[in-house]
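This protein record is not my work; I was only asked to verify it. Take the sequence as given and treat only the tokens as open to question. I have pasted the whole thing underneath without changing anything:
***
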Amino acid sequence: MKMKLCFAFLVLFLLFHAACSSDSKAAPAREETTLEPGIYVAEHPEQFQLATVEARDLPIVLNANGTVTPDVNRTIHVTSLGSGRVVDLRARLGDQVKKGQTLLLISSPDLGAAMGDYQKAQADETLSRKALERAQLLYSRGALAEKDLQLAQDAEDKARIDLQTAAQRVHLLGGDPQRPSSLIELRAPVAGTIVEQNVAGFEGIKSPDNTPSLFTIADLSQVWVLCDVYENDLGEVHVGDSAEIRLSAYPGKVFPGRITDISRVLDPATRSAKVRIVLPNRDGFLRPGMFAAARFQSRRSQPRLLVPLTAVMRLQDKDWIFRKEGKRFHRVEVHPRGEVDGGRVQLESDADGIHAGDQVVAAALAFSTEMAGQGK
């Protein structure tokens, strides 16, 4: 009986082993296609359109970031020469103001004292003028010596100068001698937009020696774009060169400008210099503080490789291109240098393993998607 059981177990073991061996031979493991090696074999390579890498001498293109700022030559800082307290705030940040428009009213002890000095000088001048008229009358009748007439004339001249000085001080503080008041009417010296405000209602105003400007008014019909250009690229930019400005607020719109100044001093932290571009802004599209991307074309040309924009694929924060090598396609990392007319992109000449005359996939994204589908 035991011999029969052992024989039965042996037969079952041999049958199970044979079944496992046949299954393993019938279903071999499938090899998967991955992107890591960067080599692809397409089942139907003829379905992918190819493009030829073209070589051409092109101007060096530089890209720099910057911000829109008011034109300093069209910017006015408004201050008050008299101290006091704000009693009426009539303009605020962002307002459009006209020349001569009242911005705020300040109750100023300085203006009150200046107005008092003016009135005193006015009274003294009136008295000295009457004294001079009386002296002239007496002198004409021989009742007054010439010396006394000269003294009267001198007193009148000094009184008139004191009156003019007092009137000028009143005007300087923002008052009007013909309208006695201790209120300073701070007016806009130019027309423009208030781009900075450092005062609020009922706030105390100190002398201009230890306080910032109350308002900053800028004429934004023309603005600056200040860009940071790195030290090793400064030789490619020159005053007078044209520039193209693009703003995040207006995608697809290009604002043409011109370089008017290149800073003589480098920022020690970034090793870059400020490049100033002047832009007209009659429509008011450009606002101070906007982020700007500038594109410069150097006067010097350099050999570049051109491929269709669709031939470059962005993946994992890198740019890739698929070069045809016989029946295989090799994925190569590239470093684009900017777009050119005709929907093509510049590559460094021979720097990325791509050469003029190479065949590359014209639609990299579609090719990558197809290869990923074959690997599933």
Q: What stands out?
A: The chain has three domains: 58-71+219-374, 75-108+182-218, 110-181.
